[in-house]
């Protein structure tokens, strides 16, 4: 009896359980989980020969993989021992019995806390064994931590967990929880289970914590998740140009040519603290769009994180209401980019496209000329009314 267990969770029991265990048993189980994780050990049933000092039949636990490691407890009798949590990623379980008087023995399960810290600007992660079935009795943490100033956009393409408790209508069994910070004491942004589809999640700061908790019963495929660090982009505008500022500390590894508006010829310049783009509306491919009778000047900011053969370009939609001198910026999600590419492909295959002229960048001289004419007409009307009243 005994052995080495390396799964995220598992069950062990005394020989012959739930029948009476044999005399003179000497069993050892070594539990090993991933580095950085700890082991939680829970007794489900316990009945051994009882005596003071537990010198005849007993279970001993050690905080490591040898008898020389810290002793966590020695148990016998019929009282179920408390839950045990290691400080390392190893646990040694020893069961011994003497030559007479036995009992039903014991049954216990263990689980590990799988933990991962994600610090890249973007990435993907998933539940253990995805798209296979996730283990029971696990408590996994994914901590996303980016540079100061960033916010985090999180999306779950797949969610397949055990359903809600029908009585409480809560995620009491298996669940995924997201916290707006680096600990479970941070604000809870949501908890999901079953096949519920979480919305796009945007953090308030530069840290997010994702927690997967499962019980010891039903299990499903789990989840997959993607996140994207939203660069702190400051955009302002006048009636003729965009000003874009990005703190250098947010993008310390990037060359200025990797940040550009519209096309690579409109790359950022370096100041002492920031990447800066100053672009006239008539340059860099800025175009005008009407929205609810308001003319907006629109362009895209590109930040190229590509390394080697791996492409990784973020897109941000920047726009300006030139009349009010109000600018805004928003990241373009992967789903939005996919839909835009589909629309472009559909447009390029529709009949008559060859004869259709391309949209040209917006020229502000038209707006200025029309505005002057309108103002002149208004002043003329006011003058005529004033003369009539006299």
UniProtKB/TrEMBL annotation:
The chain crosses the membrane at residues 367-389. Coiled coil: none annotated. Keywords: Disulfide bond, Membrane, Repeat, Transmembrane, Transmembrane helix. SUPFAM superfamilies: Spermadhesin, CUB domain. InterPro entries: CUB_dom, Sperma_CUB_dom_sf. It comes from the Eukaryota. The keyword Magnesium does not apply. Residues 1-113, 114-230 form the CUB domain. PANTHER family: CUB DOMAIN-CONTAINING PROTEIN 2, OVOCHYMASE-RELATED. This is CUB domain containing protein 2. It comes from Oryzias latipes.
